[in-house]
Every structure is written in structure tokens, then in C-alpha cells.
């Protein structure tokens, strides 16, 4: 077995670049603060949540002797990166992936966690740990100081009686929580959007929660113009499923697939479909990797322009290429994006002829024909 080193870890298949890293100081701090707890943990008693690319999971296994580690990562790209890094470091077969819930957390005595940016996501995760983990569980959650707030301590305080923060190190800090106070879950939350006439359901980590993202709102205004001959459609990066739901209601004869790499988004979109009595398929996917070439007449996309905390076009460009692959000849990709990003040239290269169909003070909507 090769000697484990953090330097060997990669982000692949997620976007890789010189300014994007697979490991940061918070990973190392979490593992250092958790060391005495990991030393006393038995087989299957260590759980890792929110591991970006495998540093926490593989570090706990290789450096601290953790065995049968259970892991939950919201983005599928994180799961795939962890699997790749486990293989490359000779640590494959030492962890298992689970949804957030009892199967992940039952009997857990140590939980290592990269803190999510969203307070709602932290609330849902902390609540699940308090409900399902061992009453003696210790939770070591950390992150970069610039992404942390005092509100995180308050969220933990809803679910644990003992909450304390560590000293900072290399612009990182951890929060250690003990003595869970279990309660009922409120997730997924739901809210009726009067403008859409739709219930929107959201788990904690779903982007925008139950609110209507303003880019999505603008794209919705063009539904009636989208490929009138379409039989099959894809909501790519579906989030809570608002685009798929609105399309299903406006055009009930369409066969609609909604995809997202986020486990929370997929669960939210399924709940949104159920709440509105709508029929469309929702799958968790790395872009559209499980879909065949030339399977769609229409793709709708509101792409992200961040990779983690960095502004980077990599994810959007990957989604453009995947949309091009699954579109049938003559199929249409409808995209909304912040106007300053100037994606039109990239869309033309990836998909085909692209024209602007709408522009307001902040967003541009284009249609690209395969």
C-alpha cells in the first residue's frame, strides 16, 4: 500500500485548476481536533459528513485507524472524487456512502464534518445527528473562518447541550458539539409560490431553499417559446425542481427528466413534484453522465458560476458540453446567466448557433440549437 499523503489527493472528476485545491487547512484541523476521539472509536463508529474530496475520510482511516467509515457527501462529484482518491491511495473498500439519515448515523460516536455554508443545511444535518447517533457522540465540525459565523454555534445549540469552538489555526476553526437533544425534523420545508401556483419543497442544502431564484424566474418567462415540437426535455441542475414543475404543468405531454448532482436537490425536486401532483423523473447524476447521446429535444439550464468559493466557469462549460451531447439534432438548449459572464461564444462552440432571446438589468437568456 502506498504511504498516505494529502498531497496525492485530487478533485477529479470535479473541476481542476491551479487555484482549486482538494485539501485545505480546515481538513487538517478537524482531524487533529478529533484525534483523541478517533483513537477510542470502534469499528463502524466514525461518520464523515460533507467531505469535499476525501481528505477527512481517508485521513481518518490512514492516520487514525478508523474502520468501516460511513460517509455522506451532498454533491455526487465529492463521492466520485473520494472513490478515485481511495483507489489511488490503496484505501478502497474502507468506507461506504449513505444518504443523510439513520443508516448513516446509527451508533455513531464520532462525526467529522466540513461545515456547510447554508445554515439550513447545518440545521438539518445537526438535527439528524442528534436524532440518530449514539447519545455519547462527539461532533467535530470545521471550516474556513471566512465562511463561518456565530449563527453556526446557535444552530448547533438547538441540537446539542454542549457546544464549544476551538482556537483558530491557519484561518480555520472547529466547533465541537456533544450531548445531543433529539427533536423532530422539519425537512423538507415547503412554501406555496403564488406567482407560480406551485408548492416548492426544500431540504436544508438545496440552493435558494423554497424561494424562486431570480435567474430561474426570468427563464420561466420564456417557457411558451421553447421548442414547440419537443417530446423529451431535461431540467439540468434542477435544484428544487421549479423549472421541471413549471414545464410539466405548462406542457403535460412532455417527458421530463430533472437531474442534479446534489442529494438534497434531488430529494427536494422529488418532494416538489409530489406536492404538486406532477409526474417527472428525478435522478442524481454527474451532469448527464448516465444519459445516452441524442436523447432530448429540449434542455433548460441555469448554470452555477462558482466552484466552491471561487468564481470559475468550469462547471458551466461542462454542463454546456453535456447538454450538447444529449440533444438531438435541432434540439434546443435554453440558458439563463448573469450578463457579465458572456457565455454566448462558449455556447456556440459547445452546442451550435446561439441567439439572445432576452436580457434585463442582470440576466441574459439564450437559445442554442444543436
Automatic annotation (TrEMBL):
All copies of the RlmG N-terminal domain together span 8-178
Q: Which GO terms describe its biological process?
A: methylation; rRNA processing
* Pfam families the UniProt entry points to: MTS (PF05175), RLMG_N (PF26049)
What keywords would UniProt list here?
Answer: Cytoplasm, Methyltransferase, rRNA processing, Transferase
Q: Which GO terms describe its molecular function?
A: N-methyltransferase activity; nucleic acid binding; S-adenosylmethionine-dependent methyltransferase activity
Transmembrane stretches, start-end:
none
The record ties this protein, via CDD domains, to: AdoMet_MTases
Domain of life, per UniProt, equals Bacteria
Q: What is this protein called?
A: SAM-dependent methyltransferase
Amino acid at each position: 500500500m502506498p504511504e498516505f499523503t494529502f498531497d496525492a489527493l485530487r478533485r477529479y472528476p470535479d473541476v481542476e485548476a491551479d487555484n482549486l485545491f482538494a485539501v485545505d487547512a480546515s481538513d487538517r484541523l478537524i482531524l487533529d481536533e478529533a484525534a483523541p476521539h478517533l483513537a477510542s472509536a470502534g469499528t463502524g463508529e466514525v461518520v464523515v459528513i460533507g467531505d469535499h474530496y476525501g481528505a477527512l475520510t481517508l485521513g481518518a482511516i490512514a492516520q487514525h485507524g478508523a474502520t468501516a467509515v460511513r460517509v455522506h457527501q451532498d454533491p455526487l462529484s465529492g463521492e466520485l472524487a473520494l472513490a478515485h482518491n481511495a483507489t489511488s491511495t490503496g484505501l478502497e473498500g474502507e468506507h461506504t456512502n449513505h444518504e443523510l439519515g439513520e443508516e448513516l448515523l446509527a451508533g455513531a460516536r464520532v462525526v467529522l464534518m466540513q461545515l456547510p455554508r447554508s445554515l439550513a443545511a447545518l440545521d438539518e444535518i445537526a438535527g439528524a445527528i442528534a436524532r440518530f447517533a449514539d447519545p455519547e457522540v462527539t461532533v467535530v465540525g470545521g471550516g474556513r473562518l471566512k465562511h463561518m459565523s456565530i449563527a453556526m454555534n446557535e444552530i448547533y445549540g438547538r441540537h446539542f447541550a454542549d457546544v464549544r469552538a476551538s482556537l483558530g489555526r491557519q484561518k480555520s476553526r472547529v466547533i465541537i458539539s456533544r450531548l445531543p437533544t433529539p427533536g423532530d425534523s422539519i425537512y423538507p420545508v415547503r412554501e406555496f409560490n403564488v406567482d407560480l401556483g406551485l408548492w416548492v419543497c426544500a431540504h436544508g442544502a438545496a440552493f435558494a431553499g423554497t424561494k424562486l431564484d431570480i435567474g430561474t424566474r426570468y427563464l420561466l418567462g420564456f417557457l411558451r417559446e421553447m421548442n414547440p415540437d419537443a417530446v423529451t426535455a431535461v431540467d439540468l441542475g434542477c435544484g428544487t425542481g421549479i423549472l421541471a414543475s413549471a414545464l410539466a404543468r405548462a406542457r403535460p405531454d412532455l417527458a421530463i427528466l430533472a437531474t442534479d448532482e446534489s442529494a438534497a436537490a434531488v430529494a427536494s425536486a422529488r418532494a416538489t413534484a409530489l406536492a404538486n401532483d406532477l409526474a417527472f423523473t428525478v435522478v442524481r447524476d454527474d451532469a448527464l453522465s448516465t444519459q445516452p447521446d441524442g436523447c432530448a429535444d429540449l434542455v433548460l439550464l441555469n448554470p452555477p458560476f462558482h466552484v466552491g468559493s471561487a468564481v470559475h466557469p468550469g462547471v458551466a462549460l461542462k454542463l454546456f458540453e453535456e447538454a450538447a451531447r444529449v440533444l438531438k439534432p435541432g434540439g434546443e438548449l435554453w440558458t439563463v446567466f448573469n450578463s457579465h459572464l458572456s457565455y454566448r461564444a462558449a455556447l456556440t462552440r459547445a452546442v451550435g448557433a446561439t441567439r439572445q432571446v432576452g436580457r434585463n438589468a442582470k440576466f441574459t437568456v439564450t437559445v442554442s440549437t444543436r
